[in-house]
Write a structure and sequence with these properties.
The chain is α/β, with parallel strands linked by helices. The protein has 2 domains: 169 residues, Rossmann fold (3-Layer(aba) Sandwich); 101 residues, Rossmann fold. The protein has 8 helices and 10 strands. The protein has a 6-stranded mixed sheet. α6 links the parallel β7 and β8. α2 runs parallel beside α3 and α5 crosses α6. The longest helix is centred in the middle third of the chain and has 18 residues. The structure holds 4'-deoxy-4'-aminopyridoxal-5'-phosphate.
Length: 296
Amino acid sequence: MTVNKNTKLLDLLGNTPMAALQRINPNPAVTIYAKLEGTNPGGSVKDRAAYSMIKGALDRGELKPGMQLIEATSGNTGIALALMASLFGLSIELVLPQDATRERVLSMEAFGAKVTLAPTMEGAIDYANEQVAKGGYLMLNQFANPDNYGAHYRTTGPEIWRDTEGHITHFVSAMGTTGTIMGVSRYLKEQNPGVQIVGCQPMDGSRIPGIRKWPEAYLPKIFERERVDRIMEVSEADAVQTTRRLAREEGIFCGMSAGGAVAAALRLAGELKEGVIVCIIPDRGDRYLSSDLFAG
Ligand code: PMP
């Protein structure tokens, strides 16, 4: 990209780089590319969805002058929305559970967002809904918003197709709202229906920040099971160990959901005769320094 005086921060959204794993890949006949979403301006894959949801609401006239955005979130979405609200000159209130880490609260406040703490995540959702009911607020609701997966259909998917020159055979992504996997699956299957779409989720009893194994009744509204060819479950221990190996052996400093997705990709690579796997690395390790992810 050439830079000139009209280059703006939003031009730096997406077009994230990919690097092939060099040391932890168990199968030399398979290439595993890590797509580094932590290089987005707000530090995570969620910048894409946040931009797309705010832009969509503005274009459709749902977000009118004087209205405020509100969202219950504890993670990357909150930081991404705070960044995008600052770029669009919008006010935003983010409602977080009390146990949200200090660096997350401070990151959102750094972009000028108002942060409200609730006792629990459920409490945060209830509070946000109450505010919306009062009027003057718009909730983007990433779990049900087509602009969430639309961002990945329009950008992440095409970037992967372009950068692998159409040679991708498998796409691996951790699933939270499922926006990433739903959008990328739509795009890649249109180019080549043979591309295998693999979702990664935590095993029962395992906790991996940013992703969930959703009980049937809580599945995100945007999730369509038939767009995922295979779901692989990863234990918390495997996700932690792979996150640490990524940092120590590959120089890739990332969060635990990336470790989970790469753990699934390594298992998959071991099963294949050959192939080209692309695995999403949703964010950077800095965001987890106050946890014990990298300690010991
Ligand atoms: N990993 C992390 C750390 C995340 O914050 C998210 C977003 N919740 C994901 C993975 C999953 O992305 P998506 O919501 O698009 O499924």
